[in-house]
Amino acid sequence: MEPIADDAEWQRLARARFVSVGTVRRSGEVVRTPVWIAPLGDRLVLTSEVATGKIKRLRHTDRVVLRVCDRFGKIDPGDPELEGTGALVADEATSAAATRALRAKYGPQFTVVLAFERLVRRLQRRRSDRVIVTIDRR
Fold first, then answer.
1. Start and end of every Pyridoxamine 5'-phosphate oxidase N-terminal domain (predicted)?
2. Which of 13, 18, 49, 72 is the most exposed place for a label (fewest CB within 10 A)?
3. Alpha-carbon gap, residue 54 to 51, rounded angstroms
4. pTM exceeds 0.90 for this model
5. Is residue 1 part of a domain?
6. What is the largest CA-CA distance in the chain?
7. Residues 70-126: pLDDT tens digits?
């Protein structure tokens, strides 16, 4: 499907409960993952653990493809695909603003999921390192 950069569709992505974020392997294959996403100004933001595949793929290419999906990643074949540019956030101010945006959109569910993740990581004796990703339109 041809990517589009329509304002209405970008806003639809920003309002969606789940968005399929496709990151690109070195082979060119797109790997899709359903994520929570929130608007932050003209950008979209998401958070993920540092060690996930999507973060590893974003380190070598910033291209992302986005589509509205359900919690399991199921995409309606008629829904448009948008292309964006993903970037890992390094500064604390943007990270804090992105976390606030995600918390505002997803409410207590966001807080509970992150608390549960921290508990599981503590039981596994592993650190829970999260990173914020910003996505701009291409």
1. 12-122
2. 72
3. 9
4. no
5. no
6. 45
7. 999 999 888 999 999 999 999 999 999 999 999 999 999 888 887 777 787 777 777
